[in-house]
Amino acid sequence: MNTEYYKIKGEHYHDTEIIDRAAQIIQNGGLVAIPTETVYGLAGSALIPSSAEKIYSAKGRPADNPLIVHIAKPEEAEHLAYTNETYYRLAERFMPGPLTIILPKRGIIPDEVTAGLDSVAIRCPSNEIAHKLIEVSGHPIAAPSANRSGIPSPTKAEHVLTDMDGRIDMIIDGGECDIGLESTVVKITDDGCIILRPGAVTEEMLAEVCDNVTVARAVIEPAVAAEEKVESPGMKYKHYSPKAEVILVDAAGEEFVEYVNAISDSSCGVFTSAEERHCYKTATTLITGEHINARDESKSLFRLLRKADEMGLSKVYIKLPEAKGEYLALYNRLIRASGGKIVKP
Ligand code: TXA
Ligand code: MG
Could you give the CA distance from residue 131 to residue 343 in angstroms, rounded to a whole number? Predict the structure, then answer.
């Protein structure tokens, strides 16, 4: 298959020719990779069963891991799912944006999209290109992250090209994703909500509009045994793993630097801010941003894991963040990328 590639720059998200072409592909049951504010998504119609099948096959994704359905406005969930008051309270505050809400599904959503579950994940992306494509196609859009299953999610169109060239109909390049980690996934419970996957909408932010916000146990556990029943099927798979071995180091400041300097050579990478790169004697530095902060570290994680492989590094050392607040999402992706291996010097 020949994959068409188009670039939409800056304010030109209303580039109607490209969006019209992409909408036509979606309506005809094809696949288009699109930027969102979190990561690139592999988009197909959520109303056409064969589109979902194509998504699973292009990604090499296990068929029991359901897809997120993307809509342009929160009310559009109405004919796809059974909404409730908590949904609208969360939607009013966080949509459009990086929040996905699990609701009981209606019959219009094919079983292929939800992997046979009786619930559906609903998200309303804020990225203008994604938003426009949903509007113009007139279809709700099923979109997992646009990576081959198991490896880091794509945050740039080049990553999608590496993974999907020849496997899908079209890629829209809208630049680097703002957030860099996938959306927060929550399930509404009788008295509040439970976080199944942490993201940029944090537990604390959810608690401002929702009582009884809890975090699923699997979020901070390295690996869930394949046979164990989990709330969100995606949590049981090995995820985000580059070829390089990811080593999480539970040490602060100086102690981390000394540990890395003592055991590394240039075939090893270390994640650092630009201002601290001079601390590392021999390891290859991978720069997360100018200073240490959750935003830059989150945004750069998947890009740098991919870069480590491009550079042929054998190992990468990353400081273990706290499992809370705006660092919880990063912690969750890191323990999965490392297969749960944490060293304490
Ligand atoms: O930011 C994002 O959410 C990106 C962009 C493209 O929107 N999408 C994304 O999709 O990360 P994906 O397929 O890589 O991850 C979807 C997650 C999986 O962990 C899946 O198990 C969970 O959402 N999920 C989907 N439907 C579900 C459902 N009905 N019940 C529980 N978990 C569900
Ligand atoms: Mg994914």
Answer: 42
What is the spatial distance between Cα 28 and Cα 41, in angstroms, rounded to a whole number?
A: 18
Give the whole-angstrom CA distance, residue 134 versus residue 265: 48
Closest protein CA for atom 13 of ligand 1: 144
Q: How far apart are the first and last CA of the chain?
A: 50
Mean pLDDT by 10 residues, the chain (345 residues): 89 77 98 98 98 97 93 98 97 98 98 97 97 97 96 97 98 97 96 97 98 95 59 67 94 95 96 97 97 97 97 97 97 92 91
Ligand nearest to the CA of 41: 1
Which ligand is in closest contact with the Cα of 39? Answer: 1
pLDDT per residue as tens digits for the range 275-329? 999 999 999 999 999 999 999 999 999 999 999 999 999 999 999 999 999 999 9
Burial class of residue 166 (count of CB atoms within 10 Å of its CB; 0-12, 13-18, 19+): exposed
Using most ligand atoms within 8 A of CB, pick from 145, 188, 195, 219 the residue to mutate for ligand 1.
145
CB of 122 shorter than 6 A to ligand 1: no
Between the CA of 183 and the centroid of ligand 2 the distance, in Å, is 10
From the CB of residue 211, how many other CB atoms can be counted at a distance below 10 Å? 9
Residue 119 in contact with ligand 1 by CB distance below 6 A: yes
* Cα–Cα distance list, 194 to 116, 148, 206, 207 (Å): 21, 28, 10, 11
